[in-house]
User: Fold these one by one.
Assistant:
Number 1:
Amino acid sequence: MSRTWTSRRSLLTAVGLFAAGVAAGCTSRETDERLATQEHPVTSASGDFTAALVPDGVELHPTIRDAEGIEVWTDDLGHVNRYVPGVVWERGADVLWVLSADHGNASVHRQDDGTWAKVPGSEGMPQDIAELAR
């Protein structure tokens, strides 16, 4: 076998492995049941709230609703369908994470007065959620 053939075969193998790794990474995020979608709202740790992606024209808005279905928070930033954000609750707290390639990551916390506040950035992000953000 020639050296050129071996090099090409090695290159094709490396490209194939890379593509498989990328596909596996995308698939695991897309199939994670903790992620909210338009069709799949997810419930907070307390069970008192749900989060979903709500369409508004060509944009999606992460939204939190209470147990009665009343909207208590919606992201003021629209996310285009091409960059669907990850929307996931922390496992042990009513803290929602919006994982966005479009606008950056943010957490949404309930304040003492009952309102919800969005905090930009990844500070304090649990490891299991950080893995989804990749």
Number 2:
Amino acid sequence: MIRMEGEGLRSEMAGELPVLWGLIKRKKTLAIAGFYATRYVEAEDADTAINLVRSSIKDDLAEALVNARGSMDGLVLKVDGIETVDPRDVDANAKGFTFFKES
């Protein structure tokens, strides 16, 4: 299991923000600066695992940002944590990003 942090992402995402306990939805644009992501891979060593995860994240990110305006030109991927886990504890469908906005 590898947790990665992506910085230097410059993108805007549009979506609906629920307000008033979800009764009303308001359109909102969020300026994205980076993200966290966790991926599971099987590899012979840590370097190979990290390279596989970097590639996977870039592919997934390109797909996630297809409807957003932005650039991955300045993207820097850093390992936030790496851990060996039992294959039975792996969620094969675990994908996604936790984005954070510009401060």
